[in-house]
Specification:
5-stranded parallel beta sheet; single chain; alpha/beta
Length: 468
């Protein structure tokens, strides 16, 4: 890609599940200078972007556009014209009702190079996660993709009456669902043809309503199904009764937050997502590294006893030792650790450390800023700062769902979560259930006002701990 001249990549984010984005799509996100993303592109994917990348939200809600198409076109040209590598991140596949044609035409008219990275389209994926194969040799040998709404410019494309097919998938069709069902009946589809409406397909908050062309309207009203949703029409919908799999997962339908106080991997989010939950780690943090003077490094290496509080501190300090050309064989014999990850980080460098039982006056403590509040002699290697690029994303994610539980991996996560919730004005989330990792974390959370333990999630955390 000719990033010196400016370049735009249209990237399909897939239907929602972050595991369904392509390897090439992720590579584009990692290299981007600017990412313009839609509402239906899972914002968790933005975590792959570099720290200097600029995010622009182009999300659209029915009848309430955050950014008009003309403005989006203009921004693509503007940033690429400045020499930026721009990623236009679209939900599903950008070429399937994603307006990639209009945006690419604008770039071509302005002589800006671009490419298109396809994504898994939402109709096929949502149907699969609902237990509905869109084709089946006994029920369907064709699949028709339709937009669920029309505008003045494309209404005449429907005059030929080609609505019919064995399986029909409607995108963006909730507003005109009843109209579309009536038109299908008028054009020959039996009124008892099976219909499924799939909201937030492939995500833990997925909901499915079933009915027929004649009854589906009442079904979705009873189930409170709203946009974004796919409508799948055809006899293949009947296979859901036998083939449903996603909503049978252990935590299917559960909505949980995972509090974070560091830039550690999103392991808990991935685990509960894999088991069917809608899990969201919050907030996203970035690392600020501190540099030591030669005098400070000399003091550390000549100390009697070192205590490391976390694994990142090990990596940062040893890197600075290497840059200053210190021989790590001169380190004191007594080296302690406070967490298992820290022990492993020291072991990876050939150092056998022992568990720190206490921190006495002779100890030099090496750690992150949040770990050194009570240490007498300490050196701060780094601190974790909230990545403010995600503030708008976090506010939207927290407001869109009825979150039930928050998981606290450590005490610092309780502080981080509480501060960010207050900053975003979401105080009601301070009253949800909680789960914890360690009794001291539980005690601290209770002191901060969290009252009710989510026993199901807590039991799972204990099981995970036992399995190691």
């Amino acid at each position: 890609m000719e990033t010196q001249k400016g370049f735009v990549s249209f990237v399909g984010a897939g239907p929602g599940d972050t595991g369904l984005v392509t390897k090439k799509g992720l590579q584009c996100l990692k290299e981007a200078d600017v990412i313009l993303y839609d509402r239906l592109a899972n914002p968790r994917l933005l975590r792959y972007a570099k720290e200097t990348c600029h995010f622009i939200y182009c999300g659209k809600l029915p009848e309430r556009h955050t950014m008009r198409q003309e403005k989006i076109n203009k921004l693509l040209v503007q940033f690429a014209g400045k020499g930026c590598y721009v990623v236009r991140l679209k939900g599903g596949d950008p070429s399937v009702f994603g307006r990639v044609g209009e945006e690419a035409e604008e770039l071509a008219a302005n002589h800006i190079a671009f490419d298109i990275t396809p994504g898994v389209t939402s109709s096929v994926a949502a149907a699969a996660y609902a237990g509905i194969p869109v084709t089946h040799r006994d029920y369907s040998t064709s699949l028709t993709l339709r937009t669920g709404h029309t505008c003045e410019n494309n209404a005449n494309l429907h005059d030929d009456g080609q609505f019919l097919g064995d399986t029909i998938a409607y995108y963006m069709g909730m507003k005109k669902m009843l109209v579309n069902c009536r038109e299908l009946i008028n054009q020959g589809k039996p009124a008892d043809t099976k219909v499924a409406i799939i909201q937030w397909g492939t995500l833990g908050k997925q909901k499915v309503a079933e009915g027929t062309l004649e009854t589906i309207q009442a079904t979705i009203e009873n189930g409170r199904i709203q946009s974004p949703a796919m409508m799948i029409v055809g006899e293949v919908v009947g296979l859901r009764e036998k083939l449903s799999w996603f909503d049978k997962k252990k935590f299917s339908g559960r909505k949980m937050l995972i509090a974070k106080a560091s830039g550690s991997p999103f392991t808990l989010e991935e685990y509960f997502t894999e088991h069917g939950a809608e899990a969201y780690s919050f907030p996203v943090l970035k690392q600020k590294v501190y540099s030591f003077t030669k005098e400070a490094l000399k003091t550390i290496i000549q100390g009697d006893r070192l205590v490391f509080t976390d694994s990142a501190s090990v990596d940062i300090l040893f890197h600075q030792f290497s840059q200053a050309q210190y021989d790590i064989r001169d380190l004191p014999r007594s080296i302690k650790y406070q967490t298992e990850k820290t022990r492993k980080a020291l072991a990876a460098r050939g150092i056998t450390a022992t568990k720190a039982q206490n921190v006495d006056v002779s100890s030099i403590v090496i750690g992150s800023k949040i770990d050194l509040n009570h240490a007498k002699e300490s050196y701060c290697t780094h601190e974790w700062q909230v990545d403010e690029r995600f503030d708008e994303i976090n506010a939207r994610m927290l407001a869109e769902d009825d979150w039930e539980t928050v998981i606290f991996p450590n005490k610092a996560a309780v502080i981080s979560f509480t501060n960010e919730i207050k900053k975003l004005g979401m105080q009601h989330l301070l009253d949800i259930k909680f789960a914890y990792m360690g009794e001291s974390v539980k005690e601290y959370a209770v002191k901060q006002g969290f009252c009710t333990v989510d026993e199901a999630v807590q039991s799972e955390l204990k099981r995970m701990e036992l399995e190691g």
